[in-house]
């Protein structure tokens, strides 16, 4: 089997995979006793484009820090 054929098989296998690229659940995130995120469920499929929009202080950056693994202090 050629290298090109193996690569094609791998790409096809990834394309068939419907497992979400991101599957995030945040029950609660607090800062100084104040709840800043609550009951968040987010799934992002492969190839999907997602935009977080909201006013200043609503938790967009906090959510992105959790996704990036920079903030582990949440339930």
List the helices and strands and how they pair.
Elements lengths: L2 H14 L5 E10 L2 E11 L15 H9 L7
Antiparallel strand pairs: 1-2
Structure, described:
This protein has 75 residues and is an alpha+beta fold. The chain has one domain (18-75). Helix content is 31%, strand content 28%. It has two helices and two strands. The chain has helices at 3-16, 60-68, and strands at 22-31, 34-44. A two-stranded antiparallel sheet has the order 1-2. The mean pLDDT is 85.
Short description:
By secondary structure, this protein is an alpha+beta fold. It has two helices and two strands.
Distance between the termini: 48 Å
Structural class: alpha+beta
Major sheet strand order: 1-2
The ordered H/E elements are: HEEH
Number of individual domains = 1
- Strand percentage lies at 25-35%
Rg, Cα atoms, Å: 18 Å
Helix content: 25-40%
Annotation field: number of helices? 2
Large-scale geometry: elongated
Largest sheet: 2 strands, antiparallel
Residue ranges: pLDDT <50 for 5 or more in a row? none
Average pLDDT number: 85
The strand count comes to: 2
């Amino acid at each position: 089997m050629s290298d090109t054929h193996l690569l094609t098989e791998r790409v096809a296998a990834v394309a068939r995979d419907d497992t979400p690229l991101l599957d995030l659940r945040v029950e609660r995130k607090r800062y100084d006793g104040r709840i800043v995120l609550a009951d968040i469920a987010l799934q992002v499929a492969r190839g999907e484009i997602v935009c977080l929009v909201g006013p200043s202080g609503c938790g967009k950056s906090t959510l992105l820090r959790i996704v990036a693994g920079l903030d582990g202090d949440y339930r």
